[in-house]
Amino acid sequence: MTETAGLLVPSEPMVATNELILSVRDLGKSYGVADSRKEVLRGLNLDVNRSEFVSLVGPSGCGKTTLLRCLAALMPPSKGQVLLNGRDVTSPPPEIAVVFQDYSRSLLPWRSNLDNVVLPLRNKRLTKQERYTRAHEALESVGLRGVHRQYPWQLSGGMQQRVAIARALAYRPEVILMDEPFASVDAQTRLDLEDLVLGMRRDYHMTIVFVTHDIDEAVYLSDRVVVLGGSPTTVRDVVQIDLGASRDQIASRSLPQFAEYRAAILKEIRTTTDGNAALGDH
Amino acid sequence: MVGTASIRMSRRSTLIMVARVAVFLLLLAVWEAVSASGLLNAAFLPPPTQVIREVVRLLGEVATWSALGQTVKAWVIGLGIALALGVGIGIPLGSSRFLYRSARLVVDFCRAIPSIALLPLALLVFGAKIRMEVFLIAFASVWIILLQTIYGIWDMDPRLLEVMRSYRLTRLQRLRWLVLPSISSYIATGLRLASIVAFFVGIGAELLGGAPGIGLKIQTAEVGGSVVAEYAYAILAAGLALGINLLMARSERRIIFWRGAERLEQQ
Predict the structure, then answer these.
(1) Which long-range contacts (C-beta less than 8 Å, at least 24 apart) are formed by B46-52?
(2) What CA–CA distance (Å, rounded) separates A201 from A213?
(3) B residues 172..191 contacting A (CB < 8 A)
(4) Residues of B in Cβ contact (< 8 Å) with A72
(5) Is B195 found in the same domain as B143?
(6) Residue A48: which pLDDT band, with cuts at 50, 70 and 90?
(7) What's the pLDDT tens digit per position in A4-28?
(8) What is the CATH number of the domain that holds B209?
């Protein structure tokens, strides 16, 4: 059942462990009642190791976001369970932070960027000084300087998403769940943010579960790509990505294996949608 | 480009100011002419010059200021109570469809009662005191603020709530840092709308119910047969209403500073 993490180059810095951190057991989710009941997820199993980067890909509307919500305990599963460090997750745990796609709707417009980052730290046992130090550090490590007094709406989309990432980072979670975090930023910013997340994971040994509909992005970032599909949705395939621990936007994407992984995943997604043009919302 | 546009704008706003003053002077001129022509009984329509002189004279009297103060005091307290109740009840009603549906009939019914119709009852219970006026003001204003609060809750971004939940903010923290700021624009609009209703009801309660304030002064002038003073007090009341409206609109814009920027970004 347990998938071993794919990175076998020990000298490289970001190596996933074999220690299980997040585990999904026979998860099912249905919406609505009686006749209008719609089953979205069924019998879904997934294991994520500590410090691993796992991407979830699948055709749009297949329930990727629903799965992520269940992982974050923002939504109770109809069946099965989510285990974090072996414990059943029923309410949002302090070990998990979530970064959403729509950054402009996930930051408080009436609070400065710094305050947005500080806010979730209020319930941690930290002095005021420690909270602000952490927030400053987090903003710095996502490459934002001199914006802490400004408000989110004074920044570009990419920078707002950086603030949201800094907020997650300052929270010091063990796991960051990201729901298509770069789907609304321009292409160049997207590459920068991808490398930012990889660097973050390397520096803080974070476990990242990343939802995307962009196969290239999933291959580039991940140790493993989980292909979701079917109706109701379940895990169709798990692809181990052996591209080395350090990735480079140009070199990694030019590797012959990159194209192979990409083709394999795309093919799997195509078959799960019965040949219908798959990745709808591009 | 921006420069010329703003010059054009400021020229335009100067023109509007001039036009406003002109319309005002025109009104005074018509009033003066009608008053002088004897078209209406001059005893009931004194010339504006006389009324303005009376306004100036009244402004020199302590009693006038204390009457204005009493009117403002009742207005502030009544509106404050309406704000606390409207927001306090509006948040749970907005958050739960069940509560909203259960309460809706009562709310719609109470909202339909003209506050002035409650005046005799309020007089009986509270007497011709400021408490009676405060009650009527609060009753008249609370529904507007209540509904605005409910609409504000309905319009809240569920994503933000989810984010705050994932960061384990407690209910109270979410209320303070998310819900209240989120709905503040709705509450501010409700407060602005309610403030004028509250003022009118307050004046009514003073004039008809005898609570102390500028309305009672109008009533006293009427009884004393001083038509000029009646007009003067009415003008003072109007000035107060105008000031209140201006103040509310100003503070509304200042409190919700992020609103304009959000709109700008979306364009």
Answers:
(1) B46/B227, B46/B228, B46/B231, B50/B228, B51/B228, B51/B231, B51/B232, B51/B235
(2) 21
(3) 173, 177-178, 181
(4) 166
(5) yes
(6) very high
(7) 443 333 334 456 677 889 999 998 8
(8) 1.10.3720.10
